[in-house]
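Please check our next protein.
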Amino acid sequence: MSTPEDEERLSPLAQRWPRASKFLLSGCAATVAELATFPLDLTKTRLQIQGEAALVRLGDGARESAPYRGMVRTALGIVQEEGFLKLWQGVTPAIYRHIVYSGGRMVTYEHLREVVFGKSEDKHYPLWKSVIGGMMAGVVGQFLANPTDLVKVQMQMEGKRKLEGKPLRFRGVHHAFAKILAEGGVRGLWAGWVPNIQRAALVNMGDLTTYDTVKHYLVLNTPLEDNIMTHGLSSLCSGLVASILGTPADVIKSRIMNQPRDKQGRGLLYKSSTDCLIQAVQGEGFMSLYKGFLPSWLRMRSVQCDGRR
């Protein structure tokens, strides 16, 4: 006759350690999604940084010599000028970032849902609690993952630097972490964290509220049922709203993270995220805040569809 200890030992890992199993599966799914959609992320970053008006102050002629190109032409240009595999330049820190971000967000959200907010008397979890919890969890996860995001953005721009005749900054991922830490200290690893967590909060807010709102509207007011078609339309709309809300902060984040720095790790182009915002709008126009919008939306929709299935 088996004892309770024997039954627990023989039970599947998913039942014995549900949170650990959920985190592991989430990490694997995030890695696959990252590899599949990373060329869109690279294209987005190149578009966001291309044409910086602030470079004129440093006497950098790259702004005049490199005209603004759309998503398709930018991606094709990377393949033609740098090679096909360069579409995945920076994918290693991006995977690190997904693991840290997903883990931090999931643990924080579970804690908020079960300990801080709790369910109502009818065991229902209200939408407003999901939104606030999702925003707070996204902020915590993004803050923890900022060093990996910083390295990812800088490595994504290494191919462009090489084409412009500039020296490469890093030999690899671990050299990038070590160099940033040596030049700017621990604080240097969190460069650009303010617009980074702002983006995370805005994206989670737009995603959660729009997805549930659109899905409920479609189920209640159209012949559609709660199926993959409804899920796809809801994800399409939620990704659009999330991208509209989050892209300006994403542009500011990418520019602050990629800007040249002095020997003490201080930025040479921007004093703060507000300064970056003002310079971008004054020098390039308001729509410069939406550079890279299309690949950002397409990538966000792909990740959302994978994550909600």
Notes: The chain has 13 helices and no strands. The chain has one domain: 18-307. The chain has a mean pLDDT of 85.
